[in-house]
């Protein structure tokens, strides 16, 4: 495998992803979600939005971004990720996702590693100066094989799925508002409100009136059937980009390999902004620009606009940028508020 800049990348117009994001966010009414990437006209923005500004070191860097701390809690205690597998999941799909989560704290993985990626997240602190925890562990899991709330979920029914999981008669998920995260993963035959058109995943917290507790959660969907070109890019390519071959995914499952980066995005944001009152840019907490939003589409040095940056080729031709315990993954970078740019463990120049 080698550092590769010679792969046929999506042509990158000179642009600034960050300024575009502000534009995007001023046009959208969604909170805390990974948007389909690359953007298309039907997301209410398009490639020509990416053609102004060119003075940055690289796209994910800007002195205009004022990521601020809004005094709320961040996840400083050991983080436990409780997973809900909604719908039909294959054993191997679960293994890939479990290994990704386990890799976050696997500090001895080969560099550049997922654990190295999480080190940027650990730079964030709360009012007391406590850093985000370096310990992220898999918690209990719940299978919701029979689609307890149907094959089309709304933002509110997502919370009902979590409620069902914590109140189940057999093996309920533990209730852990202090350091538990609830990760709802929907199989490829499940539609979730705004999936594909404006989000690939989102995070928020549950409402006591609905669920009984305030629990930080994220939803990420398997887009393999519904919209891989939107939510599993670059392992699938949307129709509006002709003549472009998808990259080979590192674990042989386009939908799940595409979910990995979305899960990483949501976990990084949950850790730094679990109750939507801690780390975000922008004035309005209902349109927060969070640490992963600022770096969406950036996977390596030089990334930004439509160019994902320098990533690596595995011997089998798969594209990745970080090592887990045994597997390889492609995970987007996150914002470093000390350096004021997006960083990742595979950076060439930091
Ligand atoms: C893309 O944006 C440009 C400029 O903002 C606009 O003129 C054009 O019509 C847009 N295209 C689509 C497909 O929305
Ligand atoms: C904790 O955060 C501070 C401030 O960002 C940073 O300087 C320090 O390196 C962080 N510690 C760890 C262990 O990441
Ligand atoms: C947190 O995790 C670390 C290692 O991951 C472990 O050594 C420590 O005992 C844990 N602390 C608590 C309070 O569970």
From TrEMBL:
Localization annotation: Secreted, Extracellular space, Apoplast
Principal localization reads secreted
State the source organism's domain of life: Eukaryota
Q: Indicate yes or no for the key word Signal.
A: yes
Protein keywords: Apoplast, Secreted, Signal
The region annotated as signal peptide is 1-33
Cellular component GO terms held in the UniProt record:
apoplast
The Swiss-Prot or TrEMBL record describes its family as follows:
Belongs to the EXORDIUM family.
Q: Could you identify this protein by its name? A: Protein EXORDIUM-like 3
């Amino acid at each position: 495998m080698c550092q590769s800049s010679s792969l046929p990348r999506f042509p990158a117009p000179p642009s600034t992803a960050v300024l575009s994001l502000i534009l995007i966010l001023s046009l959208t009414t969604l909170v805390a979600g990974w948007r389909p990437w690359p953007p298309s006209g039907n997301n209410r923005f398009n490639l020509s939005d990416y053609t102004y500004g060119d003075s940055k070191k690289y796209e994910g860097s800007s002195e205009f971004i004022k990521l601020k701390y809004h005094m709320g809690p961040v996840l400083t205690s050991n983080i436990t990720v409780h997973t809900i597998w909604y719908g039909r999941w294959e054993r191997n799909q679960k293994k890939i996702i479990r290994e990704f989560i386990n890799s976050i704290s696997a500090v001895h993985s080969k560099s550049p590693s997922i654990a190295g990626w999480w080190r940027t997240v650990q730079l964030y602190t709360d009012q007391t100066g406590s850093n985000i925890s370096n310990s992220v562990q898999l918690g209990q899991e719940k299978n919701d094989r029979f689609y307890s709330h149907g094959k089309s979920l709304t933002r509110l029914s997502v919370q009902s799925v979590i409620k069902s999981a914590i109140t189940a008669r057999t093996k309920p998920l533990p209730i852990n508002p202090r350091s538990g995260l609830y990760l709802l993963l929907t199989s490829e035959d499940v539609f979730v409100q705004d999936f594909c058109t404006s989000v690939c995943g989102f995070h928020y917290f549950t409402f006591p009136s609905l669920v009984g507790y305030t629990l930080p959660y994220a939803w990420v969907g398997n887009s393999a059937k519904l919209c891989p070109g939107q939510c599993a890019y670059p392992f699938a390519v949307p129709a509006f980009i002709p003549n472009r071959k998808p990259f080979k995914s590192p674990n042989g499952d386009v939908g799940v390999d595409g979910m990995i980066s979305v899960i990483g995005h949501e976990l990084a944001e949950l850790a730094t902004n679990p109750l939507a009152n801690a780390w975000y840019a922008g004035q309005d907490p209902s349109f927060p620009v969070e640490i992963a939003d600022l770096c969406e589409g950036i996977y390596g040095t030089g990334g930004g606009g439509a160019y994902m940056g320098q990533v690596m080729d595995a011997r089998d031709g798969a594209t990745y940028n970080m090592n887990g315990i045994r597997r390889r993954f492609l995970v987007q970078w996150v914002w470093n508020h000390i350096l004021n740019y997006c960083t990742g463990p595979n950076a060439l120049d930091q």
